[in-house]
Amino acid sequence: MKKIIFYPLAIIFLLAITSCQNMFSQNDWENPEMFQQNREKARATFYTYSTLDKALLDNPEDESFIKCLNGKWKFNFTDHSDKGIPDFQKVGFDDSKWDEIPVPGNWEMYGYGYPHYTNVVYPFEKNPPFIKDSQNSVGSYITYFEVDEHWLNREIYIQLGSVKSGYYLWINGNKVGYNQGSKLPAEFNITPYLKKGTNKLAVKVFKFTDGSYLEDQDFWRLSGIQRDVYLFAKPKTHISDFFAKALLDATYENGEFALEVEIKNTLAKKVSNLKLQYQILDAGGKEILSNENIFSIKSSSVNKLSFTDEIPKVNSWSAENPNLYTLVLNLEDSKGNTMEATSIKIGFRTTEIKGGQLLVNGKPILLKGVNRHEHNQDHGHVVNEEDMLAEIKVMKRNNINAVRTSHYPNDPIWYKLCDQYGLYLFDEANVESHGMGYNPKNTLANKREWKAAHVERIINMVERDKNHPSIIVWSMGNEAGTGPNFLEAYKAVHARDTNRPVHYERAEKETDITEHHTDIISNMYAPIDWVANRWVGSDAERPFIWCEYSHAMGNSSGNFKEYWDLVRGNRQIQGGFIWDWMDQGLTKYSEDGTKFWAYGGHFEPEGVYTDGNFCFNGLVNPDLTPHPGLFEVKKVYQNIHFKDLKISDGTITILNEQFFLDLDAYLVRWELMENGKTIQTGTFLPTGVSPQTEKAFNIGLKDFNPKKGDEYFLNMYALQGKETELIPFGHEVASEQFALTDFEKIDNKPIVSNNMIVKDVTDAIQITGKNFTVKISKKTGAITSYKLNNYELMNDPLVPTFWRAPTDNDFGNKMQIRCEVWKEAMNNATLESINHNTVSQSELTINTRLKLPTVEGAIDMAYSIYGNGDIKVDYTFKYDADLPEIPRIGVVFRMPREFDNLEYYGRGPWENYIDRNTAAFVGIYQSKVADQYYVYGRPQENGHKTDTRWLTLTNQSGLGFKIEANSKPIEFNTLHNSTADFDEGKVKTLRTPIDIKERDFVEVHIDHKMMGVGGDDSWGAKPHKPYIFYTDKVYNYSFTIRPEL
């Protein structure tokens, strides 16, 4: 026990010594061993209150000894670090002509410098620890605040929650200190520098410091004071820190509570007969535990008080059931008067690695997670509580239960909300040196002079966040190589907190270190096959959790179900964190005032390196509207599963994948569908399904007698049965669709007696029926015209196509180059033959063959035209060349814009692809063509639909086409744009949705197949083999075009 208490203090002492070495040899901001001057020791997040009642309310705005300094500050910007304003910190300096800037705020968002997006490449010349003056801008801040007389007999501190990247601080012209580490707060004691009345605060912020070599995260490089700034006045003797360890015993039923409190006496005399009391209150405010300690404290010293207690039958905390208690601390003087009080929320929760699994409260939870950057479309890295709560609401409604704080400690409010609403957190330190690479000779993790900086950033995160039950794992950083610096940090974290596992993805890779320094294996983007075939069985002691997987860049998130088939089939694979949560788009306006979300290259000057739209990897847009991929994630992540349907007796089994809650809070609804229409429906309560169990239910289905030739589905939905603060009553939390019959299209010829007239006209075969006229080109073999009641339905002919506009994943694997032959396949196509045969006066067949020399192939198109206007199209494609995969196999034509009423029977209502369609149920959907366009931040392939039985496109008069699949379902796109509109060519060119203008046509793709979108990564991975097409050399399908009157 003594080792656990004193080892961290030894580390902190060593850090303080090493941070002072070489402090005079070079600039503070270019010295890896100088990262703070006069900063207070890191501590847990809590506020100081003057009364017990105020502490219970825990609202700092109501406390007179807390003063928020957020607001408009005076600001000056210089683009060279050696061109700062001299003496601006002095009292009397004239700042009347300076600009004003919001605090918190990133100065680039207000026109100073520019937002710069880069992933790995440093935004400055790499030469650690140095930063060129010409690449390092400086922001100088001034603000004024009042100090009341009653503050002056207390110890007064200032906290700056987050400043990017390093800064000096002055009060009334007096230098207070220096700090680096842009994602943790820094506190300074400013008591000696204050006076009654008006005081001046000056801050000089460097955009980059040596610490920036450890802050090479994949996000916008933005600067400034970006979290809250506030003052607080504490008694001369006060609570300086505390660690509340709220755990469970071996039965996971009873609470074990240990409290360590540090009391600091700043007086030059001993203080006696102080009393520290603590209470633990339940959710209703009832006291369930209390204790106290009467003590004395020597002058200018720190006392440590310890308590241990037990609480029987405690209500434990989990993301499913985030039970919280209130811990109240009250420090009293010898007369029983409150000197200082505070309170926080705690949750009783145990996290451990046991039997090769990550256990929370003894259960091997599944992490259905996302990686989250702090991002706001208008304010950059400044995110407020309203933003955070909105994000959590969307996460909880989409079955996301875990977040990795990639790749730095978040605003303290985030943790408070995750405690309250229930999210598991991997809390990650602000350590990433990706731009240095992983070679042991180069990585900063191997360099002794960088050790203290590594360890300090990691241990200070632990100190700040140690009391949050939502944090189940400490993560030491990201993509920073490995070496003795991480081994040292790993030991330090375990010494300080023995109750949470420690994670680091790069641990034990490319290093001679043989000691374990991660408790979880988490290879980012490890392929499913590698995990299944190489990792499984290789490590019996540690679980596997993807710290990053399923790269959601643009039109992505394919084959997500396959990941979770593996997770659910192996006890040691416990989920992962999708990269990532939100597109990091920043609001920008075009010259005509149109808003769009900008990415890398839209702000930076020409010649400045940027990674383009690689910051658009989210499941949601910057305004939290969902990408279509989020619907698939919600489906795969769902906690309630329907299985083992026995339609003959109307029973179905419901599996509860939750670990702590039964299903009594939910309602189940079902619907029986016949050819896409509901013919029966019902509801029932899924009672009695304990966590991690399953139970069969009779759903109440009436007699089911399927008709031959008709198609039937049973749709099951689990709905929120009790409204919560974040999830409304009736919200769908889980779903499943069961096909009760196979798709069976009876390919009967239409029974018609209408005669047709066939004519050879110039360059075409013309077929005229009662109310239609069709032309088929004798030069191309294509249907070039279809008039219905003398109204032309086709703007452009029906021709084969093999191309789609490249997605971001396509660009990543070079599809736009590798598969270009398919883009050009029709360029030199020639009609080898065309002939027609009159079967009867009401039936004509026309057979065409197109030669495609580019791909050494041929397309046979057979048209069967009937007297009622039907055209049956039979398509066969054969090729012999050894070629890459085919992006799509289908035909395309155009209709006038007015045919924008879409109805279809297939998977929907959102876009879906063959590797991302389990959430899109087969049904009948009505919409507009314009609504089929999904607006990705960078234009690309979008709006596709799979497993389609039929679709109709009509105008306001009901005139148009119905297109029916014949032997097997088809796929389709309908947009007011062409494929070419979304195709940038071989190289991305900074396009955004404002470059896409709606056209005066409807482009209709009727596809046999389009390859999947993929999603393993966006820099080389192709769609999985079942979802790409190149092994077969023959492809055929059939559909019928019918007139709609």
From TrEMBL:
<dbReference type="GO" id="GO:0004565">
    <property type="term" value="F:beta-galactosidase activity"/>
</dbReference>
<feature type="domain" description="Beta galactosidase small chain/">
    <location>
        <begin position="766"/>
        <end position="1042"/>
    </location>
</feature>
<dbReference type="Pfam" id="PF16353">
    <property type="entry name" value="LacZ_4"/>
</dbReference>
<dbReference type="GO" id="GO:0005990">
    <property type="term" value="P:lactose catabolic process"/>
</dbReference>
<dbReference type="Pfam" id="PF02837">
    <property type="entry name" value="Glyco_hydro_2_N"/>
</dbReference>
<keyword id="KW-0378">Hydrolase</keyword>
<dbReference type="Pfam" id="PF02929">
    <property type="entry name" value="Bgal_small_N"/>
</dbReference>
<dbReference type="GO" id="GO:0009341">
    <property type="term" value="C:beta-galactosidase complex"/>
</dbReference>
<dbReference type="InterPro" id="IPR014718">
    <property type="entry name" value="GH-type_carb-bd"/>
</dbReference>
<dbReference type="InterPro" id="IPR032312">
    <property type="entry name" value="LacZ_4"/>
</dbReference>
<dbReference type="Pfam" id="PF02836">
    <property type="entry name" value="Glyco_hydro_2_C"/>
</dbReference>
<dbReference type="GO" id="GO:0030246">
    <property type="term" value="F:carbohydrate binding"/>
</dbReference>
<dbReference type="InterPro" id="IPR036156">
    <property type="entry name" value="Beta-gal/glucu_dom_sf"/>
</dbReference>
<dbReference type="InterPro" id="IPR013783">
    <property type="entry name" value="Ig-like_fold"/>
</dbReference>
<feature type="signal peptide">
    <location>
        <begin position="1"/>
        <end position="25"/>
    </location>
</feature>
<dbReference type="InterPro" id="IPR008979">
    <property type="entry name" value="Galactose-bd-like_sf"/>
</dbReference>
<dbReference type="InterPro" id="IPR050347">
    <property type="entry name" value="Bact_Beta-galactosidase"/>
</dbReference>
<dbReference type="Pfam" id="PF00703">
    <property type="entry name" value="Glyco_hydro_2"/>
</dbReference>
<dbReference type="InterPro" id="IPR023230">
    <property type="entry name" value="Glyco_hydro_2_CS"/>
</dbReference>
<keyword id="KW-0326">Glycosidase</keyword>
<dbReference type="InterPro" id="IPR006104">
    <property type="entry name" value="Glyco_hydro_2_N"/>
</dbReference>
<dbReference type="InterPro" id="IPR023232">
    <property type="entry name" value="Glyco_hydro_2_AS"/>
</dbReference>
<keyword id="KW-0732">Signal</keyword>
<dbReference type="InterPro" id="IPR004199">
    <property type="entry name" value="B-gal_small/dom_5"/>
</dbReference>
<dbReference type="InterPro" id="IPR006101">
    <property type="entry name" value="Glyco_hydro_2"/>
</dbReference>
<dbReference type="InterPro" id="IPR011013">
    <property type="entry name" value="Gal_mutarotase_sf_dom"/>
</dbReference>
<comment type="subunit">
    <text>Monomer.</text>
</comment>
<keyword id="KW-0106">Calcium</keyword>
<dbReference type="InterPro" id="IPR017853">
    <property type="entry name" value="GH"/>
</dbReference>
<dbReference type="InterPro" id="IPR006103">
    <property type="entry name" value="Glyco_hydro_2_cat"/>
</dbReference>
<comment type="similarity">
    <text>Belongs to the glycosyl hydrolase 2 family.</text>
</comment>
<dbReference type="InterPro" id="IPR006102">
    <property type="entry name" value="Ig-like_GH2"/>
</dbReference>
<protein>
    <recommendedName>
        <fullName>Beta-galactosidase</fullName>
        <ecNumber>3.2.1.23</ecNumber>
    </recommendedName>
</protein>
